[in-house]
Amino acid sequence: DADVTQTPRNRITKTGKRIMLECSQTKGHDRMYWYRQDPGLGLRLIYYSFDVKDINKGEISDGYSVSRQAQAKFSLSLESAIPNQTALYFCATSDRPSGRGNYNEQFFGPGTRLTVL
Amino acid sequence: AQSVTQPDIHITVSEGASLELRCNYSYGATPYLFWYVQSPGQGLQLLLKYFSGDTLVQGIKGFEAEFKRSQSSFNLRKPSVHWSDAAEYFCAVVYSGNTPLVFGKGTRLSVIA
User: Fold this and answer.
1) What is the dihedral of CA A96, A102, A107, A113, to 10 degrees?
2) Lowest CB count within 10 Å: A8, A116, B34, B47, which one?
């Protein structure tokens, strides 16, 4: 089974609808992230969470909200979807640094392709 | 603010030829550097990472990268490209354990026969 799972994998919705994308992980990591990928723009950080009680805005948080329901679950919501939120969305996880001056790699889910009509 | 530049949007190489993908980072502190690969329809997979020590790091799939502080670069190389290497490659940087990764915009690699 995959360590980082995302549901749904594909979603088509209409403008104005509320959408929730879910991410679950079995890696036991404290840290979780949501990115969106657009052609030519790379990955841009939407929100991140370093533990269950910690939520931080990323580069492009407007129009999005998140919920960290448990260590293993991190959901991304679009309260009122708009067409320019059509993109590929990735969830990622990482462990906390094991020591001073260290940083652990991020592990990515397979992505959710969202289309807003 | 930390940033990463990948100057090449798209590169095409012949199978068997050598490859070098460029990555430049901003900021003055010693960075932690990563290269990820995204195959078509897939998520991102870590190829290699640099934290400290030897400036030439080896990764999976025959890739290597060299950290050059004087040039603020972390270029990815492979001596002989295979058709299965066609993918998008992302360089990423972070400067402390309490900030998230910052990704470059990616370089798409095409491999021709």
Assistant:
1) 90
2) A8
Touching check for B27 and chain A: CB below 8 Å? no
DSSP A19: E
DSSP state of B84: G
Q: Do B100 and A101 touch (CB under 8 A)?
A: no
Which chain B residues are Cβ-neighbours of A110 within 8 angstroms?
Answer: 42-43
pLDDT in tens, chain A (117 residues): 579 999 999 999 999 999 999 999 999 999 999 999 998 888 999 999 999 999 999 999 999 999 999 999 999 999 999 999 999 999 999 988 776 656 778 999 999 999 999
Residue B57, C-beta contacts closer than 8 angstroms, at least 6 positions apart? B48, B49, B50, B64, B65, B66, B67
